[in-house]
Amino acid sequence: MSEMQATYLKDYLPPAYRVTHTELTFDLSPSATRVKARLHVERHPDREPDDAETSLPLELAGEQVKLISIAVDGRTLEAGEFEVGDDKLIVSTVPERFLLDTEVEIDPDANTALEGLYRSNGMFCTQCEPEGFRRITFYPDRPDVMATFSTTLIGDRDSLPVLLSNGNPVEQGELPNGRHFVTWEDPHPKPSYLFALVAGSLEKVEDHHTTTSGHEVLLQIWVEAENLDKTEHAMASLKRSMEWDEETYGREYDLDRFMIVAVNDFNMGAMENKGLNIFNSAAVLTHPQTANDATFQRVESIVAHEYFHNWSGNRVTCRDWFQLSLKEGFTVFRDQTFSADANSAPVKRIEDVSFFRTAQFAEDAGPTAHPIRPDHYIEISNFYTLTIYEKGAEVVRMLRHLLGWEDFRRGSDLYFERFDGQAVTIEDFVTCMAEVSGLDLDQFMRWYSQAGTPEIDAHGEYDYATGNYHLRLSQRTPATPGQTEKLPLHIPVRLGLVGTKSGHDLTLTLNGDNGPEKLGKDGVLHLRQAEQTFVFTDVEEAPVPSLLRGFSAPVKLRYPYSREELAFLLTHDSDGFNRWDAGQRLTLLALDDLIAAHRNGVEKVMDSRLIEAYRSLLNEPGDDKAVLAEMLTLPSEAYIAEQQPVVDVDAIHAAREFVRQSLAWQLRDDFLAVYRDNLSDEPYAPTPEQIAQRRLKNVALAYLMSIENDEAVSLTQHQLEQSANMTDVRAALTLLAHSDRTDLAEPALKAFGEKWAHDPLVMDQWFTIQVTRPQADVLERVRFLMGHPLFSMKNPNKVRALIGAFAQNRINFHRLDGEGYKLLADVVIELNRLNPEIAARIITPLTRWQRFDEQRQALMKAELERIRAEKLSPNVFEMVERALADA
Ligand code: B3K
Ligand code: ZN
């Protein structure tokens, strides 16, 4: 089958023809939209016919578009002069330079894949990245074809009063039969994946931003009328992002207006279309009463991310989709830094890393592991992954560490200047970094081609006689599918040596190739070899090494720390991130013992050192409440599972609960005090201080509720009833719903569901709270809620809120009767038909079967086989094939 064929990076060729200007006219109608395209086409100078070719035919991509007419330079082509297949149109002979006119018909209402042009709540909208434009019209739908666009939208004036596209509006007017039109012009050449249109009954809020150089930009957020009061935070975030990118990267916005539109049905978070960002409503709408703090922060970072793409993605784009991380890795790095600057920097890092080490490490260790720049794919939509995005960002962060900020910024300036308006490769980016810094980054490039998580083993030895400290580091990357040979990587290891007597960072003098090298108190080692020993001289006292500070490289680092050393780092490490990590390591050691005890059926005993460590945290809280809240948060079941050779779902759950409850029993009064001290009657604001305070308070409440005494229950009930913000309401409702007090939980859930039935984003939270309960009857509840009138398999947010969330409910999803797996497989089969992109994402937990015991492995594989027997989309086909490849 042709669509199951793989595309290879090594086969890349420039396009035979390029388009310099694209004129589009949309006559919008729900099930029969007409699209006229006039393309200004010319031969690509870089592409000569090779020996096998006599001429270069014009090949355009097109899927699910019905051709009405085609003409070259005004002459209608006759049958025989062109060929239309399932996914392309070929014109065998064309001039060097010509105008191509086509007219096609498409059916937005039949589009449940949400790629191309579709309708959401009656509103027309588009999603073209990566290959959706070919569902709109025949086009060389590849990112290295960049054209200016002129787009005319025609629609019914009453039902579609607002007609938006990229760039600036240049003309509008009335047409017969109650229709009207608007023409938009985008002067910046762009690939088709950045095209967008929106048409519907929308309202807007407006603001302005004046750039550093004095350019006035109109900012608009377009929403359905009932959501007008939920745009303030996104607008504020947008303005801060614009300022930040000017200050930090010297990048200004380049059009007269910047628009954001919120739509309810959207596969991803948002999309950076030039001048017209389209957002999943869940990634843009906030209100204190409907969104919690985490959502406020997510909105801030996604608004920033999409805005930052205007330079890292749009002005300089990718040559081909193998280079996806060029724009995504860099842009994620940029949004992470922006959020760190706007909030608590160590906490932002802790949150990002704890997610990364859980989810990306799992991806890197599973059957779908791939390099940041993959070398082949069947369906590119499957490669919008944590590896491309988050590991891509870690690699950019390593460059920043290796170069230092000033050189990194110079490299970024050079990159934007040299490649403005072009479609380029990852080498182009890294070359700029090497050029400005003089650093040799050849070995570093392996990060882009080698999959898998490198493992570093570290050993340290202090010589009391000489005052030398030897640090031996060895690295190895485990084999990944299709890649058995791994080479050593160039890894920046940031470190400090913390004196055991003083508790302070010691001065680092590295015995380098050219004599002693002063690294200050916090240095970066360049690990390049499989095994390397670093010698520090003049180390005044025996140290505990604080390694990989700030998670300076996306690796697993093992060091044989004793519990005493970890407890020492927990209080003394000057690096906030490593202080937190020491706590995590200490907790994991205690959990290991408890998991073993659970397996062996012996009585669980809580490690008193852990209790003491927590007690000191609670008693000497420091001044960063956000960090404290993170330090008091136990590693998730998913992260604990990552540490186990064979995941024992039940033992992990039991051990973690045991730790939670033991801490709660032992430190009950301290948690109670933290809870009380952090109550506040200030009006809600999404400020870092308030967010930290609420977080800390709710972490304390969660501990108290784990032992469910009357006092905790009544505090929770009181919080649920009295709070005016969703952060506190949701936290309380979740605690109640996840407790055994069903007598209280059920009425509370019912009341919440009735109160918020009109708000889809709140109802998503209501679904999630119910299906993440630890109680054993949850699967039945999932099935029941799938029949709820407000649930829809066609809405990706609902699918994620109900099915996606259930699949994260580890003890219940991994039930030993296999019913959890069966439920997910049923959903995948249904979504495979409706929305292949979402189907291929939601299937992920099933692809990780290798990690579990034999019984569960068999059950999971059986479900994958059942899916494989269906007529599959390329998306799901590729995932299932990879998952079963070594079964
Ligand atoms: N660039 C988009 C990705 C959309 C892909 C959907 N198949 C979102 C982002 O990274 O900003
Ligand atoms: Zn992005």
Describe this structure in a few short sentences:
The chain has 887 residues and is an alpha+beta fold. Strand 14 (168-175) and strand 15 (179-190) form a beta hairpin.
**What ligands does this structure carry?**
(3S)-3,7-diaminoheptanoic acid, zinc ion
Strand content: 15-25%
Poorly predicted tracts of residues = none
Spatial separation of the terminal alpha carbons: 23 Å
Order of strands in the sheet with the most strands? 6-5-9-3-2-12-15-14
Q: Portion of residues in helices?
A: 40-55%
Largest sheet data: 8 strands, mixed
Q: Which structural category do the helix and sheet elements fall into?
A: alpha+beta
Summed over residues and divided by their number, the pLDDT gives a mean of 97
Q: Rough shape?
A: globular
Counted beta strands: 33
Task: Please count the helical segments.
Answer: 28
Gyration radius (Cα, Å) is: 28 Å
What's the topology here?
Layout: E1 7-8, E2 17-27, E3 33-43, E4 58-61, E5 66-72, E6 75-76, E7 82-84, E8 88-91, E9 97-106, E10 116-120, E11 123-127, E12 147-156, E13 162-165, E14 168-175, E15 179-190, E16 197-200, E17 203-210, E18 216-223, H1 232-249, E19 257-263, E20 270-271, E21 276-280, H2 293-308, E22 317-318, H3 324-342, H4 345-364, E23 376-377, H5 386-403, H6 405-419, E24 423-424, H7 426-437, H8 446-449, E25 455-463, E26 468-476, E27 491-499, E28 508-512, E29 515-520, E30 523-527, E31 531-536, E32 543-547, E33 556-558, H9 563-572, H10 576-600, H11 608-619, H12 625-631, H13 637-642, H14 649-666, H15 668-677, H16 688-706, H17 710-722, H18 726-737, H19 742-755, H20 760-771, H21 778-786, H22 796-807, H23 810-813, H24 819-834, H25 836-842, H26 844-847, H27 854-868, H28 874-884
Parallel strand pairs: 2-12, 18-19, 19-21, 22-24, 25-33
Antiparallel strand pairs: 1-23, 2-3, 3-9, 4-8, 5-6, 5-9, 7-8, 10-11, 11-16, 12-15, 13-16, 14-15, 17-18, 20-21, 25-26, 26-31, 27-30, 27-32, 28-29
Helix pairs in contact: 1-2, 2-3, 3-4, 3-5, 4-5, 4-10, 5-6, 6-7, 9-10, 9-11, 10-14, 12-16, 14-16, 15-16, 16-18, 17-18, 20-22, 24-25, 24-27, 25-28, 27-28
The structure holds (3S)-3,7-diaminoheptanoic acid and zinc ion.
Residues 305, 309, 328, 331 line the site of zinc ion (ZN).
